[in-house]
Design a protein that fits this description.
about 260 residues
């Protein structure tokens, strides 16, 4: 199967050459992270091939990535800010974030796992960069306002946050790590990037009903994990667990902004 990956990659990107054995090692590392075999990634083998070549700084791969994918960033972020200057800033930040390692570890593009198209993965990353830039400039986005309104309207939320602050944050982090790659992806897209159900469906190339079902299921799984973790650790009564459930739901946008690191 690894040789098949190599052949597919070379056929799609004939100017990009990587050592077959190094590609095998990369697929093995991805399997250690998400448990998926090479067969499960074959649909996007060409994308994986190019992403891996970019992660090892192959100059021809970087040029191909720039020409075929980075050029789409302007369209990706137009609804955040349609100005050419903003798009150029996003492109530059995105190149740095995905293609440059500043701590000796592989660049973030090495995290691309082939679960979906590379273009869709890049779109998610571009939207996060765009939203981060807006927030850094003091812009308050719609997704940021929701939890603030919920906090003001519900004093019980404030009390719970103070009483179980550290346990709550730890449970959220652990619950997030328990979600599948797809669950984290759809939650990022819908709650962090602000994409509609139709837009999420387009990214994953599924019917909107399927996208809606995925989003709802991911929310339920995150909530179930948080309540299970806190229930086991704190032995809380059912009434307080129900209050924490409302807290998770009211703070979902804000929590995901802190938890959902860029791909």
């Amino acid at each position: 199967m690894s040789q098949t990956f190599f052949e597919i990659g070379r056929a799609a990107w004939p100017e990009v050459v990587v050592a077959p054995e190094s590609l095998v090692q990369h697929l093995d590392r991805l399997r250690e992270v998400d448990g998926r075999d090479a067969e499960d990634r074959q649909e996007h083998a060409a994308d994986l091939y190019l992403a891996y070549a970019c992660s090892v700084a192959d100059t021809r791969a970087l040029a191909a990535f720039d020409g075929h994918f980075i050029t789409k960033v302007d369209a990706f972020v137009a609804r955040v800010d349609s100005s050419p200057e903003f798009a150029a800033e996003v492109r530059q930040n995105l190149r740095t974030r995905l293609l440059v390692s500043d701590d000796g570890s592989p660049p973030r593009i090495a995290r691309y796992s082939g679960q979906g198209p590379l273009g869709a993965w890049l779109r998610m990353a571009a939207m996060r960069v765009a939203l981060d830039l807006k927030r850094a400039r003091g812009c308050v986005l719609a997704a940021d306002r929701v939890p603030e309104v919920a906090d003001r309207a519900n004093p019980e939320v404030q009390l719970l946050k103070k009483r179980y602050a550290s346990e709550y944050q730890a449970a959220l982090r652990e619950a997030w790590s328990r979600l599948s790659v797809r669950e984290r992806s759809v939650l990022r897209q819908h709650f962090v990037d602000g994409n509609s159900i139709d837009q999420v469906a387009t990214v994953f190339q599924v019917h909107r009903a399927t996208a809606a079902r995925w989003i709802n299921a991911a929310q339920e799984h995150l909530l179930d994990h948080v309540l299970s973790i806190l229930g086991d650790r704190l032995r809380l009564p059912q009434s307080e667990l129900q209050s924490i459930a409302r807290l998770v739901q009211s703070e979902l946008h804000l929590s995901l902004n802190h938890l959902a690191d860029a791909p």
